[in-house]
Amino acid sequence: MTPLPIALSCGEPAGVGLELAEKAWQALRDELAFFLIADPFHLPGGVPVILLTDPAEATAAMPKGLPVLPMAFDGNAVPGAPDSDNASAIMDAIALGTSLAMQGKVSALCTAPIHKKALKDGAGFGFPGHTEYLAHLAGVENVVMMLASEQLKVVPATIHISLSDVPKVLTPQLLRDTVHITARGLQDQFGIENPRIAIAGLNPHAGEGGAMGMEELDWINETITQLIQEGYDLIGPLPADTMFHTAARSKYDAAIAMYHDQALIPIKTLDFDKGVNVTLGLPFIRTSPDHGTAFDIAGQGIANPSSLVEALKMAARMARSKAGV
């Protein structure tokens, strides 16, 4: 087990997060220590629960039951029916997990999925998603979202914006920041001393010499060349349609894509159930399952825990790598 437990924030209690937390405990009880930050009255009740007064108690509690650091929520937890009265407590659970991580009381923070509309309706949540909220809580300006599995690690340079806005938001400085944060994260949290990074082109066939778009010629090629001269091990810009097959993936440790779907389609095709969302650039380790609240199947006991299990296992590996053990 890791020296310090992993904090798992509950996310939206009307989704699948709580039942997946119980299944993750069953799968990992002998492998690593984590605890859930949640209202224990919201739990489905499928496993024994050990209430904690301090995160340090989680490791000893783990073999006996699901460790829970209790928080009181104002609303109900009806599967598939989010209650906006829970919004403030959901955000508080994330904030508590962040605080514990920044204080060094946990080895990592793993977050169950949230429902942004319920948070906005109930507590005026003003962030595009988890990643931006965590950056705000940590006082960090620039972070990147990595989707990771055993087969592929990929980072979208732009995330939750319309496709028409991508060329406006994508700038040389954004690409530079993305490369820097990705390379540092691969070194510090994945133990890759000299990371090799592939960069996708923005346009089809990476612009094909200007025939299908000019961004590559205007600035992407030059920015990548400058970064290589600064010591980064980069290849690109590469046509996105030929850089994710098996032979191509063997030539790099992570890929940077230019927009959301360019990054997420390949990893979800390769490893839909085990993809993990990792936030790089935070002063602590953060992972999350790569799926949403799944209201349509919540409460039915059929949700697949694989992604949450992998998110917790990856957080533990990253913590060991960061600690040099």
From TrEMBL:
Subcellular location(s) of the protein: Cytoplasm
Cofactor: how and how many bound: Binds 1 divalent metal cation per subunit. Can use ions such as Zn(2+), Mg(2+) or Co(2+).
Keyword Cytoplasm included in the entry's annotation: yes
Ranges in a coiled coil: none
Binding-site residues, a divalent metal cation: H160, H205, H260
Assigned EC number: 1.1.1.262
Record keyword Zinc-finger present: no
Binding site for substrate: H130, T131, K268, N277, R286
One example of a Gene Ontology biological process annotation: pyridoxine biosynthetic process
Main subcellular localisation: cytoplasm
Cofactor(s) in the UniProt record: Zn(2+); Mg(2+); Co(2+)
InterPro entries linked to this entry: PdxA, PdxA_fam
GO cellular component: cytoplasm
Pathway connected to this protein: Cofactor biosynthesis; pyridoxine 5'-phosphate biosynthesis; pyridoxine 5'-phosphate from D-erythrose 4-phosphate: step 4/5
Keywords from the named record: Cobalt, Cytoplasm, Magnesium, Metal-binding, NAD, NADP, Oxidoreductase, Pyridoxine biosynthesis, Zinc
One Pfam family it belongs to: PdxA
Example of a GO MF term: zinc ion binding
Catalytic activity: 4-(phosphooxy)-L-threonine + NAD(+) = 3-amino-2-oxopropyl phosphate + CO2 + NADH
Family to which this protein belongs: Belongs to the PdxA family.
Additional notes on this entry: The active site is located at the dimer interface.
Self-association and partners: Homodimer.
Function as written in the Swiss-Prot or TrEMBL entry: Catalyzes the NAD(P)-dependent oxidation of 4-(phosphooxy)-L-threonine (HTP) into 2-amino-3-oxo-4-(phosphooxy)butyric acid which spontaneously decarboxylates to form 3-amino-2-oxopropyl phosphate (AHAP).
Protein name stated in the entry: 4-hydroxythreonine-4-phosphate dehydrogenase
Organism encoding this protein: Shimia gijangensis
Phylogenetic lineage: Bacteria, Pseudomonadati, Pseudomonadota, Alphaproteobacteria, Rhodobacterales
Gene that encodes it: pdxA
